[in-house]
Structure formats: structure tokens, C-alpha cells
Amino acid sequence: MRIATINVNGIRAAARKGMGHWLTACAPDVLLLQEVRADEVTAASLLPGYTAVTWPCRVKGRAGVSVAVHENSAVGMGELRRGVSPAGATEPDVDSGRWLEADLELPSGQMITVVSAYLHSGQVGTEKMDQKYAHLALVGNRLTELLDSAAQGGPQVLMAGDFNIVRSPQDITNWKPNHNKHAGVLDEEIAHLESWFTAGWTDIVRHLAPQEQGPYTWWSQRGRAFENNTGWRIDYQMTTPELAARAISFKVDRAASRETRFSDHAPLVVDYDD
After folding, report:
1. Distance separating alpha carbons of residues 189 and 180, to the nearest angstrom
2. What are phi and psi of 178, to 5 degrees?
3. Is residue 87 predicted with pLDDT exceeding 90?
4. What are phi and psi of 94, to 5 degrees?
């Protein structure tokens, strides 16, 4: 079973820039998209061969997450859940379109839960940073619930997407100039991620490549960051332990050149034993 996650930086723009060619070549069974920035009908129309569900952001032009299943994969789409706010609470507008859970039935008959997550980027010294920390706290609570459920015999879980946080100097080219100066490289943010891994979640890339620098998944559009591979690893696939044991291999599907990119992120593709 192949699962791919990619921040498309606007699905319309990604489609114009060749996302369809990548999708045909990669052919993931399950596709998780972030920063879709489109309504559900538009997003589905740009994913031929897939059954797609999208949760748009209520703030126009922002966020939006999708879960899509290949029509030939024999994976069935089940119950969907949107957002991480407690039951009965309304998701703040800025948190909408950032967390979409889908229960999937595999050909083996096993159920798994996948989450397409687009965590806030934040900005130091602004309200955006407060919004990020508030959302991270809610995400942490939901991850605890999902992990506990999996441990008690519920579906195994895969959370994937753009977390907008690196873990260590191993995940960013220029650690020192960014550490505790820019969002995504703050100790307080990193502590949230590390608390998830300490609790029992597995960072699949680090599980399969514990010593590798990067591999980076995002490069600034400024200067020659992409050409020089001056990047950040901020896109993850994170799973419960049983599912982590079934991870076979991964690939950051980096474009051959700046001109052939369809997003400022690269897809993170993982093959699992189904």
C-alpha cells in the first residue's frame, strides 16, 4: 500500500504545473493533500482516478485538506471526521480546513484511520503564533485519544501532512540562523512534536533513515534554495507503532528542476506492507 502526502500550495496551480503527471507516475493508493485552497467539487475534478474528500477552510484562499483513494486500489472510504476541537465545539475559522480524518478499509479487511493535517505556520510575535500553539494543544489531545484507541484494539492510525515544524538540526540546512528566531524552529514548537513521539507515535522517515540529513521536503521560493538543496523537513508521515512496523520504504519525490516543480513542497511517499 502506497501512501503519499503533499502540500500542493493551491491545487489549481499545482494542476497547471504538472501535478497530474506526478500522480500518474507515482500512483499512490491513498493521497493526502494540504493547502488545497479549493472547494470540494473543484478539488475532486483535479484528481482524476481518485475518490476525494476535501474539507475547505472557511477563510477564503487559505488551508484546506483532502483525503483521496485510488479507484483501482480496493481501499474503501468510511467515516469522516473534521477538526480537532472537542465534541460539540465549533472549530475557529483559522483552524478549519486543517485536520481531516478518514477511516479506510484495506483489501485485507483491516480498518485504519488516516489524517491529512495542515498545522499552522505561525509568525513570531504575532497573533498567528498564539493560534498555532492553541491548535497544537488541541492536536496533542486528539493524538492521545487516537493512540489510546489503537492500543486498545481500535484502528491503527497514520497522521501525515505539513507540520510546519522541524525536529532538530538534522531537519534543516541552516539551524543556527533560524533556531529560536523563526517559526518552525522554536523550542516550544519542537517540544509539542517530541511529546508526540515520546508518547509512542513513530516518525516514519526517522524510523527508516535515522542518520540521514533531511531529506528536506520544502524549499523557499527565494533565491536558489531549491537548486542548492537549502531546505527544511516539515512534511511527515507519523504512525501508531503497529503500522510503523509495516513501513517498507520511503521517498521524497523531489522534482528534477525548479521549473518542473508543481509546489514548493515535495511529495513524501511511503510504501507499507498491507
Report:
1. 10
2. -105, -25
3. no
4. -70, -20
